[in-house]
Design a protein that fits this description.
By secondary structure, this protein is of the alpha+beta class. Helix content is 35%, strand content 21%. The chain contains 7 helices and 5 strands, in the order ββαααααααβββ. It has a 5-stranded antiparallel beta sheet. It is globular and about 40 Å long. The chain starts with a strand and ends in a 15-residue tail after the last strand.
Length: 154
């Protein structure tokens, strides 16, 4: 089976993806944006959801700031601001710029949870600043849980 792979832009829009990516992250391609997925179907599919979204919202803030809060970033913020969990995390004002290379995501799949490490490759300068995101899927290893984190899908 091919590795899950997608082209995503800095706004976390999924521009194109293969079937393996869609199987690993169901509905992410349909929704068209990883942040919308995290605060939608991803709630039930990310093992350590609270820790994951806390980190991702801090990175979203850092990425938007890096690009000077452009209209595309402001529109993503407007699209997500009515979600109470997103609003709570955004108002923490935490900022991050990158995910550690060896920090996996933990995803529930039909055959059980897996650890996914995304390898990113930036493409030559373009207006959308595309990245090729290729997932390395490994057997699940228990993450350090944050207090109150779920340990099974809802």
């Amino acid at each position: 089976m091919p590795a899950p792979a997608a082209y995503c832009n800095w706004r976390w829009d999924v521009v194109a993806a293969n079937d393996a990516y869609e199987a690993l992250f169901p509905q992410r391609v349909e929704l068209g944006n990883a942040m919308h997925w995290l605060f939608g179907p991803g709630r039930k599919l990310v093992v350590n959801w609270e820790a994951e979204v806390t980190s991702d919202v801090a990175r979203m803030r850092g990425i938007c700031a890096h690009f000077g809060n452009p209209p595309a970033g402001i529109s993503l913020l407007a699209e997500l601001q009515n979600d109470p969990d997103f609003a709570r995390l955004w108002l923490r004002r935490e900022v991050s710029y990158d995910r550690p290379v060896d920090e996996p995501q933990y995803i529930y799949t039909a055959s059980g949870p897996v650890s996914v490490t995304m390898q990113l490759q930036s493409l030559p300068a373009q207006k959308d600043l595309l990245q090729l995101c290729v997932g390395v899927v490994r057997p699940y290893r228990v993450p350090a849980l944050t207090p109150g984190a779920r340990t099974d899908p809802i």
